Amino acid sequence: MNSRSGVALGSVLLGGPLRVALIGPLVAGSTRSSYPPLLPPSAQHPLGTDVLGRDVLALVLTGGTSVVVLAVAALVLSYSVGVLLALAVVGQRRRWVDEGLLRLLDVVLALPGLLVLLVLAAADRNGPVPLVLAVAVLQVPPVVRLTRSAALEPACRTVVEAMLQQGEPWWRVHIVHTGRSVLGPVLVDAGHRLNVVLGLLASANFLGIGLAPDTSDWVVHIERNREALFLQPAAVLVPCALLASLCVGINLVVDSALAGREVK
Amino acid sequence: MTARAVVLRVGAALVQVAVAAIAVFVLTALLPGDTAVVVLGEHADQQQLAALRAQLGLDDPLEQRFLNWVTGLLRGDLGVSLLTGAPVAEEIGRGLATTVLLAGATLLVLLPVAFATGVYCGLREDSRVAWAVNSLLLLLNAIPEFVLGLLLIGAVSVRAGWLPATAAGLSGWSLLSEPAVLVLPVLVLAAKQVCGLARQVRIGVIEANSAEYADHVRLLGLSEPVVVLRHVLPGGIRPALQQLARTVDGLLGGVVVVEALFAFPGVGSGFVEAVKARDLPLVQGYALLFAVTTVVLSLVADLLTARLVPQAEAAR
Amino acid sequence: MTTHRGLSRRSLLAAVGGLAALPMLSSCGSATGSTARLRTAFPVSGARESLDPHTSSLFVDQARAKALFDTLVAYADDMSVVPRLAESWEADPTGTRWRVRLRTARFHDGSPVTAEDVLYSYRRIADPATASPARWQFTDIDFAASRARSERELELVLHRPNFEFPVAWGAPATEIVPAGTTDFSAPVGSGPFRFVSFSPGAPAVLRRFDDYWDGPAGIEELEFVPINDESARVAALLSGQVHYAHDVSANSAQTLQRESRVRVLTAEGGTMQALALKVDRPPFRDPRVLRAVQLGIDREQLVEVVLAGQGVVGNDLFGNGLEHYPRDLPPRRRDPEQARDLLRQAGAEGLFFELLTSAADPYFEPASGLLAQQLSDIGLRVSPRVLSAETYFSDINDAGVAAHTRTAALPVVSFLRQRLRSDTASGNYTHYRSAEFDALLDKALATADPQQRGRLLAEAQLLARDRSGLVVWGFSDWNVAVSSELTGLRAAPPNSLDWARFDGVGFA
User: Is B87 left (phi over 0), alpha (psi -120 to 50) or beta?
Assistant: First the structure.
């Protein structure tokens, strides 16, 4: 098995849920509570109905957009802030700026993420925006740490010194060049961080905080239907499988693509 | 790292904990409602609420309460729980043994498995088995803990009856009298974390294996097993160290879900209950515990990394 | 299993060479009947972790109090009063002086239960410093005039006539404690079980009290295991770790029907589920808009979907099936046409309002979604807003215009007094203030003749039904699940005598 087939398999695993997420809402039927709850799969409802009497197939088709958008938004937010911050600071000649930032971020790291989410929920700030912001903020410290450690690689540093000697502008050296060389580890981390973000979203819903309970969102469906897991498994296992496929797919693609790029 | 740098680092860590404590206090104070409301619940009338509030000291201004807490802390007294009246240290201590046991058992399982799979996948990069293992780990990581937990409980506990489904009233060290109770929760926790750690080990091993130094040493005629043992494996440890701190963090997050699902009265569920009850002193205590744990782990990881990778420091 | 008996049996069987794994999982308590320990699982979230019966607010507190202590009377399934510690009682013609005779009973330390103990307990409950949820029912007692006439006879004097006063003696958190008790770390009561051990966060263990006035219990030990998560409770029951799982969801009940190892005990229609619409402010101050909502919701669909069919359709009044519930009440049928008409007349077409909801009850959030859908059919735009569960019932006292509420089975009179009177301290979520209703209620309470009293109460309820703003859409079933080998347990509504009652339990 080589990197090419890894990418191929990963793309399939990734593409499936993405296609469902993007195209699903266009072809889905109604998600109104119109039917008896927890019906087993049948001709009329290929995946049965959920605890609220909604067609599971329609829910699965419409639920992808929300979770993908939320997760991607949180990731993009945390990486844009985190990577830029790390790159800007890593080259500083004044060590205390660098150290200070790390320590400050570590404070955020020390905050129990769940407390932040619980406070948000208790302050009645449920809903997608506070959730995304909170999840993103909680990811910034590990992103900064990772970017910084990748940027501190000796190979990286010598080129940087050379470029600075040659009078290249600060931003081009630190942001563009270093950015390009840390891209690899950052992408790998992003793949893994998607799992973390989705996990946070899932835990948040498990604890009863996060999105409104009748939102059509795979993570919400998994939580809502979990007590009927053995009565109507499709309602939990299908969204779960789609999420798992998404995660595994992204990680396979990223891992394989980078493995292919490495020079042995 | 010089002794001076170490001292500075530790000092910084203390400041971090202090700042985290303030932040947590503020966050918890932002929660609407208070313990009196939670305790009296639906049957509260204004008179009883007022009486209870005065009794619990909820009428004092925030700064005053924070100051009281800090002075108590410096004396080693974490205060008492607003809900039960028991000392905070006692309440947290009760759950601490349980969670430490859970986390410890998970790490005992996690570390060897992650290291072994990481090394194997790193050395045999292109083999089918390595890719299959890699994908399996990714899959386990992608499933939410509570789904995996529910599936396992349903299949293993309820249907087959091989293992108990909950802690059923046990806690702390008494859990060791019924070790079967630990199996499922540890499995769920480890399944989630093994992926991240194994990957880092794998990446480190790959890099070390393909480094010029390794090739050089091979040219010198050292046998492959020795090369692997003395030069490649240690290379796998470095990135894993940083990841270890993150893994323990992830464990703490997963522990909350697992403790709820398997009815383990540990610090995870204790913390959630304390927030639900707006029990400020108790929440403060837990948050302090988490902050100290995280900061100490970061510190240890940084110090160990610095010792193992002196060139990263020298280059700056 | 975790008892010492379990371990020694296991090692014995292992020594015999049997399959070592099985005894660990078979229910531990099925040893010889009188040496058995019954393990029960209850949620304890938010518990004060105290065995003080007068502050009990959670079901687990009440269940423990029921095992350790006794009340003067208790409620039958229809919430009518049955004697317990009080053998008999009578009121004077004014309804303000009550004479109560106690039966012979002993506390766990051997001392007899006397009238002084009752007076002490009631004084303590009425004291604001105790923070007892039962306080409101005892504030009318004139403690200066009330006294013990003999060792087992007492006289309670009220400030105002109340022929339904005995109802207060059976309310939750009204157990009788020995006079002078202030510390409940090792409580002494007169109940069927005596205290063995309890520490916060750990199970409470009680042992049979052989001198119990109603005869000794069928089991030797009773254990209350704290398990918050509902699926964990069910799993513990199914895998034999506990014998009784309290408060099981409708979906779990359905799954459990298929299991032969457990039985589901269902108290039908035990809990009222309602919308509380505030009638002291727009939009529901306008009776037409209120009526439109009453006509616009589809109660059958709510029961079928939200309650999974496990419940009874509501008729906008609390207490379906209980004593004093008006008979032959015509059902409220859905009429979207008339509803839309009313909204048009009131100029409220397209009206938008927020519906407050939370996770405080498992049916609230599903109900909000469905209600929003149903009301959109008559032109109302409803947006559910999720509040935090722990402070929900306090928050909805003043906030918003529409909120979910639920009430477990209680005597109808208690409900009317606590929730619909204009001068209640809390719990009147609709802010219904009607002098006419208050007058009817007071008159009913001051009426000696039970028939006439019943008529007046029915009249008051019919008045409240149209105007109080309480839209009762259904009554959810109350489920507990027990191991099939238990005998002596039956389905009973919450707060009734046989609910969470373990002294009659035995192992088959």
Answer: beta
- Token representation of residue A71: 């997760």
Q: How far is CA A164 from the centre of its chain?
A: 35
Rounded to an integer, the average pLDDT of A136-141 is: 86
Contacts with B135 (C-beta within 8 Å, 6 or more apart), sequence order: A9, A248, A252
Tell me, yes or no, if A53 comes closer than 8 A to chain C by beta carbon.
yes
Q: How far apart are CA C429 and CA C421, in angstroms?
A: 11
The residue to which tokens 């844009």 are assigned: A80
Residues in chain B: 316
For residue range C429-453, what is the model confidence (pLDDT) as tens digits?
999 999 999 999 999 999 999 999 9
Closest chain A residue to C304 measured between Cα atoms?
Answer: A36
Chains in contact with C via at least 3 Cβ–Cβ pairs below 8 Å: A, B
- Out of B28, B256, B315, the one facing A114 most closely (by C-beta) is B256
> What are the φ/ψ torsions at residue C42 (nearest 5 degrees)?
-130, 150
What value does the mean pLDDT take over residues C5-14? 40
Interatomic CA distance for residues A246 and A260, integer angstroms: 21
Q: What is the 3-state secondary structure (H, E, C) of B184-219?
A: HHHHHHHHHHHHHHHHHHHHHHHHHHHCHHHHHHHH
Which token pair is C244? Answer: 């009784």
Q: Would you give the distance in Å from CA C498 to the centre of its chain? A: 12
Residue of A nearest to B314 (CA): A154
The two tokens of residue A165 are 């000697």
Backbone phi, then psi, for C274, in 5-degree steps? -145, 165
Per-residue exposure over B277-309, b if at least 16 CB sit within 10 Å of its own CB, e if not = bbbbbbbbbbbbbbbbbbbebbbebbbbbeeee
For residue C98, pLDDT beyond 90: yes
Structure tokens at C403: 């909120």
pLDDT category of residue A207 using cuts at 50, 70 and 90: low
The answer to whether B17 contacts A110, with C-beta atoms less than 8 Å apart, is yes
Cβ atoms of B35 and B275 within 8 Å: the answer is no
Interchain contact, B316 vs A95, CB within 8 Å: yes
- Which residues, 6 or more positions from C477, have their beta carbon under 8 angstroms from its beta carbon? C250, C253, C266, C267, C268, C269, C270, C271, C307, C310, C311
- Nearest CB partner across the interface for B141, out of A145, A195, A252: A195
Cβ pair B294:A110 closer than 8 A: yes
B160 touches chain C (CB under 8 A): no
